[in-house]
Write a structure and sequence with these properties.
- It is a single chain.
- The protein has strands spanning about 5-10, 15-25, 25-35, 40-45, 50-60, 65-70, 75-80, 90-95, 100-105.
- It is mainly β.
Length: about 110
């Protein structure tokens, strides 16, 4: 029998640290992780405890920090990174977690 339940973890100060689904005590499906100020830090999916599919990370001010795809816990494909003011910082491609090809950087 599969044990599938919603998990919530908290920082010592009582602010929500993480929430998402666990199956047989392993992260599975959609998860959100939070900064200590309560704003989202990361959002994405797990499959059998590994990051999969499209993920977003955020600066503590709530602006997006990065976005891209994971396959079996490794960055894969096109990724975008942002300055904390929301402007593009760099864009490039990963293959099984390694940067490949030319990367384009932008100044804020």
């Amino acid at each position: 029998m599969l044990d599938f339940n919603l998990h919530k973890g908290y920082f010592e100060n009582g602010i929500l640290k993480e929430e998402g689904w666990k199956q047989n005590n392993t992260k599975d499906d959609y998860w959100i992780f939070y900064h200590t100020n309560g704003t989202p830090k990361e959002k994405g999916n797990f499959q059998n405890g590994q990051k999969v599919s499209y993920w977003y990370t955020y600066h503590t001010n709530g602006k997006i920090q990065s976005e891209g795809n994971f396959v079996a816990n490794k960055q894969q494909g096109l990724w975008k990174f942002y300055h904390d003011n929301g402007q593009i910082k760099k864009i490039g491609t990963f293959e099984t977690g390694n940067q490949i090809e030319l990367w384009r950087s932008y100044h804020a």
